[in-house]
Amino acid sequence: MVPYYGRHSCKQFIRGKPIRWGYKLWVGATRLGYVIWFDPYQGKSSTIAEGYKQFGLGGSVILEFADVLQGRDPTLSFHLFFDNYFSSIPLLHELSNRGLRATGTIRENRTSKCPLESNKDFKNTDRGSFVFKSSLPTNVLVCKWNDNRVVTVASNTETVEPLQKVKRFSQELKRFVHIDQPSVISKYNENMGGVDRSDQNIGLYRTSIRGKKWYFSLFCHTLDMAVHNAWQLYKRDGGEHDHLTFRRLLAKGLLESYKKSDKRGPCPTGRSHLESSRYDGVDHLVQYSAPQLRCKVCKVKSFFICQKCKIHLHPKNCFLEYHTKTQ
User: Where is the PiggyBac transposable element-derived protein domain (predicted)?
Assistant: First the structure.
């Protein structure tokens, strides 16, 4: 949900959400929260492709996302995870025909009359009990597992084995106990939640600039999403800064790149002109440049500049001294 409180036909109200009023986006993300695809929901005016109407609104969203993934690289075997708003047995069959793996929770009335016990009866069994059925030819599995409540998961690729052991607190015994958990449930819990994680990270440092145009909040949200994705790539490559520090460094770099100095005279470069990139240790190379100008450190004329900072420095000692932060 993108917060918006003005007037627009696409504005939605969803009770119980942290953001109740605003634009609704369908989002596809990785397990760690990297946003791959998003599409604004347009309410009743949303159009569903003719071939996807039989799968309903939720199923059509999954198939559109699948089209995007396979359009980027048809050779990869993707595994999609989604909740019970989207899933149905016909959808899993369709994804199997496309060569895509899929796993998701499913509502009891969408199991296509799978011959399993009803949730009302199954919740009276022991905690950790499970039952399952599979169909041919696409081997779609439907599994019910009794935890705090009955959980139903459907998949076209996972199985119930090997069983996992999970720890739960028993109110009857007043201690923690270990119960069985099917593998399909474990895989779903392990890989689900990427969209929630991205939404949480974006919401922590959301751009709080208010505009009068209806599209301004969407623009700011898209910008926040791009910064979040950049931080995800930075962490994947071994970056050490947290999200807030990364955003601060990025903002400093942008301000530095487009800063206009108000200093008058032959040397308009201010003292803080390169405060962000000066010590980052990236692409600071020595380059010959004529005519010679005064070195930034020793004030003696030099023919050499830092290729990134565009400042004259002597390559022997002044270059290192200028790019080293003193404690």
Answer: 1-231
Lookup: tokens for 6: 């003005």
Helix axes 89-97, 56-72, angle to 10 degrees: 20
Indicate if the pLDDT at residue 271 is higher than 60.
no
Strand boundaries in 31-174, DSSP class E: 35-40, 79-82, 101-105, 130-134, 141-146, 150-155, 164-170
pLDDT band of 155, cuts 50, 70, 90: very high
User: ∠168-172-173 over CA atoms, to 5°?
Assistant: 70
- What is the C-alpha end-to-end distance of the chain, expressed in Å? 44
> What pTM does this model have?
0.79
Residue 268 pLDDT: 52
CA-CA distances (angstroms) from residue 262 to 212, 256, 259, 269, 310?
31, 14, 9, 9, 18
- Cβ(309)–Cβ(278) under 8 Å? yes
Whether the pLDDT of residue 89 is over 60: the answer is yes
Are 216 and 224 in contact, with CB atoms under 8 Å apart? no
Beta-strand pair 175-181/164-170 = antiparallel
The token pair that represents 30 in the structure block: 């990785």
What pLDDT does residue 182 have? 93
Q: What is the DSSP string of 168-220?
A: EEETTTTEEEEEEE-HHHHHHHHH--HHHHHHHHHHHT------SSTTHHHHH
β 101-105/79-82 pair status:
parallel
